[in-house]
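Forwarding the complex inputs:
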Amino acid sequence: MVNRRDFIRLGGAFGLVAAVPGEWPFAAVRPAFGFPGMEAFADTRYAEGRAFAAAARAQSMVVHPVGVDPSAAVTRLAPYARERPTRIVGLTTLAATVVVEAAAADLRMRVRYRGLHGYSADGLMRHELEGDHDLVRVVGGDLAAARDPWAVVLAMRLERLLAGDEPVASRVVEAPAPPSNRMPLQLVSWVIG
Amino acid sequence: MSALPEGVSAEQMRDALAEMRGVVGDAWVISGENPLLRAYRDTLSTAPEEASMPSAAVCPASTEDVQRIVVIANTHRVPLWTISTGKNFAYGGPAPRTAGQIVLDLKRMNRVLEVNTDLAYALVEPGVSYFQLYDHLRERKLRLWIDPAANGLGGVVGNTLDHGVGYTPYGDHLMMQCGMEVVLADGTLVRTGMGALPNTKSWQIFKFGFGPWIDGLFTQSNFGVVTKMGIWLMPEPPASMPFMITFEKEDDLERVIEIVRPLKVNMVIPNAAFTVDLLWEAGVAVTRNQYFTGKGPMPDSHRRKMAADLRLGAWNFYAALYGLPEVIDATFEIIRGAFSSVPGAKVYFEKDRVGDPSFEYRAQLMRGIPNLTEFGLLNWVGGGGHINFSPISPTLGSDATKQYRMIQKTCHEFGFDYIGEFAVGWRDMHHILMLMFDRRDAAETKRAHECFARLIDEAAAEGYGEYRTNLAFMDQVARTYGANGGSLLKLQQRIKRALDPNGILAPGKNGIWPLTAKEGPPT
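Prediction (whole assembly, two chains):
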């Protein structure tokens, strides 16, 4: 599976790490590694969501953009849908997360991991993670030490996130906030399966 | 381990679940430490999640399964809490009234049994969502509209049974319901109205049949389990025109409602129209902290900035016209003329609000297209907490203003924003306050609970009652309907005793408790 070093190296090697002002770096390719057939949902209204989507796409995931109306993502999980995903990952608003979780419950899928990402009162990025013990330790450590944008850091850990078991442990970490493009709300990363 | 229902032993529960497994299979009885059981909690309201944690969920696939399950429940005296799709957000979701009740989850019964294009109706099972019925009609290219609630995940049957409303001319859902199949607590199967006639040709086209009309007894109640329901569908009109009129001042509400009433009562405006406050409209698209990061209700200066940025009014009226284009044009001139008497009123059509999520989702709903955009309000303060306070108001400007001022004052006193709307029915308005709070903040959640309880009592003191409420407040609301010594609730109790003597169906639903429960009705 791709790791952070590979991701940056490959993106850089192909000239695919974009440096668009106001945007976070992202890769725009589908290399032949990663998680083919797995599905990700990302709120592409926000830079964090777009970075997450691009990174997921770069790891061969099928990405469903989620905007102001999460209907398309939720209809994907309808009990009468012809194809059912087994495990899905997302970076969405709280509102979209609530309805995706509710819809997924009808497919007997449940939350395996959840992370709340927002600004603390002193301007730091605050990450509240719930997952299995290893997951919150590993991902929490990455986020605390990260110099890269947090959404990209999360996307670099898709393998670990997707392997999440039960959300029995929690961890809160704070890290420096990105310099610009403050998202106006809390975003939620999640794995459901 | 989840709690057992009051008065039920571990042995009773074990034996009942074992027999239920024999009906639906092991996979469809969720109990004990199964993590899937956690999906049946109410995770959005002010009550602690443990207060509504079921001991099990059982998922039948057919009416026959339901009949067998209620017989088992009666044998072992275990309570069942029925849900259809379980998406009754803000009112309790899939959770039972009290901890330990077994959720009777009808989501597997999700067949669209019939769609009649000539008579424009559908017969559906309780697990059919608005999305599903909409997709069913579109895939078959049937020119019929559904009337969805704002939550497209919601169930057609569940919403109707809870007296929900929609947005098209068929927005009064119970009025558009026609014929039910009901399993009683002893397993008896009843078809209501014309459905009681063997080989009937009219079950879904004439509501009343012969003798007393009893369908209403199975709404907001615990007298039976509805396993099929007819619903009328709206023939697709040749044209439709949603529109929005904004009003600058909070005080405009009284005049707006005075204008709306004759337009509705005379059916000039045919659909379930809405008068929506600024924050509800804004909250779909933006968050509170984009405009105000302080504590307490948002100050007027910030509200004005938000209104200007988003081209919204203090109040925003939404309605739609349907039919032949020339008739729509002529009718709209009547409406325009009526509202032009309000200084500062501005009229918008679809072309004027391209990219405005608030207008777009309401326009979709007024055309029978389900969506989930309104959930964006959950982002307003973050933290996910919300419960709806839903008093009925006469469609009179004086009452609307009185309710608005009363509720706004109490919300502000407790530090919350007023986020509300008035859904105009045939004569009444459903006044919906969406009380948003950060559920991660225990103190704020407690304040929201206290605020809600105060609102119920204040409204009742002025003669206003709620049409629907969250699980945690069902007893309090039921007590407000206490005229003549609480005779209505006592009558409901007598019906409950006659139909369900062991009290196995949804104990406590809407304040109706079986005699076996400690927490009984008011005397």
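Residues 106 and 180 of chain B are 15 Å apart (CA to CA).
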